[in-house]
Amino acid sequence: MAKERDDTIASRISRVLADRIIRGEIAPDARLRQDHIAEEFGTSHVPVREAFRRLEAQGLAISLPRRGVRVASFDLKEVREVADMRAALEGLALKHAAPHLTSAILDEAEQATRDGDAAGDVHAWEEANRRFHRLILAPCGMARLLAAIDDLHAASARFLFSAWQSGWEKRTDHDHRAILAALRQGRADEAAVILQKHVQWIGRAPVRTPSGSTRDAFAIVG
């Protein structure tokens, strides 16, 4: 019974910390302090250690000798890897989803695009963008494929929130509209090609470090 309770607490801690890391509230390379987290959640160190293991399995944290458990950093190579994986998997999902897309689904996806264009901050844009992709891909009915794509979108969100902590500018997503136009006209292969190129576009933004200097941060803006 106690083990089940610890597992439940560990799941909650890992979910909360994962959300904070993805949203950029905990910076890359920041130390995750076991005692502080145990105190925050009113628990022992056992479920906290299990939560850390889960974060490591998700690639969100890393355990380093003499440096403790820290939020995993990422570089341009990792961003490109996620972009390439998204392109391959989302292209596959769209080809299977296309025969099942209805006018109502495409109308919802168009509204998601408009919401993204109107977004005043990066968090609102990411939510609308993710909704667009889910709407056009979910009808593929391939649960494992969709779960893998969801994990990649979470990674994309982390890159995005880290790069665009401020200074987000509204944008018009012409790719989304081109994808929808192709799908409405029954040109699924063309829509898949546009989608694959779309998710491989990587943007760059200057980010101020704690020391006061700036570094380039990269993110998938699609």
From TrEMBL:
GO molecular function annotation: DNA binding; DNA-binding transcription factor activity
Secretion signal, residue range per the UniProt entry: none
Pfam families found in the cross-reference section: FCD (PF07729), GntR (PF00392)
HTH gntR-type domain: residues covered: 7-74
Coiled-coil region list: none
UniProtKB keywords: DNA-binding, Transcription, Transcription regulation
Superkingdom per UniProt: Bacteria
PANTHER family: TRANSCRIPTIONAL REGULATOR, GNTR FAMILY, TRANSCRIPTIONAL REGULATORY PROTEIN
Protein name (record): DNA-binding transcriptional regulator, GntR family
Record organism: Rhizobium hainanense
